[in-house]
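BUG-294 | component: ligand-complex export | severity: low

The export step for zinc ion jobs runs without errors, but we want the raw record kept on the ticket for reference. Input record follows.
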Amino acid sequence: MMCSKNLGWRTNRLKLGFFIPKNKQIILNFAYFFVFYESKGDIMFDFHIHLARLPQPKQLTQQLCNENYDFIAVACEPWEWDEVAQLKKEFSTEVKPFKAAYGIHPMIAWQANEEMFANLRNYLQEDKHAMVGEAGIDKRYPGYEDGTQDQIFLAQAGLALELKRDLQIHCVGDYMRLLRLLNEAGFPQDKAQGQDAEHLHVLSRLQEAPRPIFHRFGGDTNFVKKALPFGALFSLHEDSFRKKSTAAAIPHIPQERVFFETDADESFLDPDELVEGLENRLESVRLAYAKCRE
Ligand SMILES: [Zn+2]
């Protein structure tokens, strides 16, 4: 069962390659080098997973590493930072490294203080490959209306710029407000970017600049067009295809800026079939993506 599924993933990866015209291959390979995190190879790559929130995180991490399931372990509050840093120490190796992200989620923006930020900075400085996030805005939590969430987001965007780290962004609410905040924080833009694949070579100019990553993406086409000049990456989740305006926007994102995620956390499925559940969820995102590009 596991084997045939992995094979399917590989075969489909190859198929996706055929969508790219030959004369664009060199440019895309170049872009691949800059855009992709390490070599993805023939493996599943989960761009956003809350490893520490899942049951038996140690056994699970070990199992995922053994299964060649690649991932970015996202930690969005202090206890989760501790756990993810510990998991990284124990299980991330040179042969099979995994990436972490440390941030203050908008759900706890109202609790953030200087001590929390100092602590966050320490985690980021200790792990030079870690991203900042997830950070963002969410209308379901306190601080959305009065600007508290904006301030906590801006501070983390500043940290991402200062430390030259990519920023995993969470947004439930006004996507355009996030672009204004990125601008305010000083995230660089390159107007030539994202227009079409021929302009992807300009990515080298932004290579040092952190990129915003819109996780569990739920914006529309207009947003995609305005976000691409920031060098934005888009992490798609099953939910990304539920909203019509987002499903219509996804084909406008250059393929090399697209990643897939489970966003799996404590609310995730059956603990006995975790690995298979994660793979199935990633596979279903990949299939939804292939379908919306047909
Ligand atoms: Zn998340």
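Assignee comment: Attached the raw record above. The chain has one domain: 43-292.
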